[in-house]
């Protein structure tokens, strides 16, 4: 005979596996620092690419002014400003990345803990049925 409580618990576990299971897999595989470090490394690459794409877009946008002032441009000043802009951009980008992935990790770990609670409950029900 079917145990309704066990079926409900198993249905909850199956729904978790289908919906959130793949998203929470890194939370099981990595420690918090390792998970965040991996995401920060990805963010370094994407942030650098984004900055240089924005820089190229800005250069194309102000191309007319650049052509008019080509002889009076101070390249050293532009280089210093670009490096400072890059540093600020990456600092903000890293801060946002850290906050987002720290929150994702925390929520994912909580979801995995709930999953394990349901798993323990199912195991307990199975043991009780075997004893009966």
Question: How does this model look, in words?
Answer:
With 132 residues, the chain is mainly alpha-helical. The protein has one domain (4-131). The chain has helices at residues 4-19, 21-29, 32-61, 63-68, 75-131. α3 runs antiparallel to α5. The longest helix has 57 residues, at 75-131. The protein is rod-shaped and about 90 Å long. The two termini are 13 Å apart. The model has no long low-confidence stretch (mean pLDDT 87).
Give a count of the beta strands, DSSP E runs of length 2 or more: 0
Instruction: Please state roughly what percent of the residues sit in beta strands, choosing from under 5%, 5-15%, 15-25%, 25-35%, 35-45% or over 45%.
Output: under 5%
SS element count, helices: 5
SS-based class: mainly alpha
Helix content: over 70%
Q: How far is the first residue's CA from the last residue's CA?
A: 13 Å
What does the largest sheet look like? none
Arithmetic mean of pLDDT: 87
Could you say which overall geometry the principal axes of the C-alpha atoms support? rod-shaped
Low-pLDDT segments: none
Please trace the helix and strand order, writing H or E for each element: HHHHH
Number of domains: 1
Radius of gyration over all CA atoms, rounded: 26 Å
Keywords: Membrane, Transmembrane, Transmembrane helix
Transmembrane segments: 41-63, 83-101
Write the layout of secondary structure elements.
Blueprint: H1 4-19, H2 21-29, H3 32-61, H4 63-68, H5 75-131
Helix pairs in contact: 1-5, 2-5, 3-5
Keywords: Membrane, Transmembrane, Transmembrane helix
Transmembrane segments: 41-63, 83-101
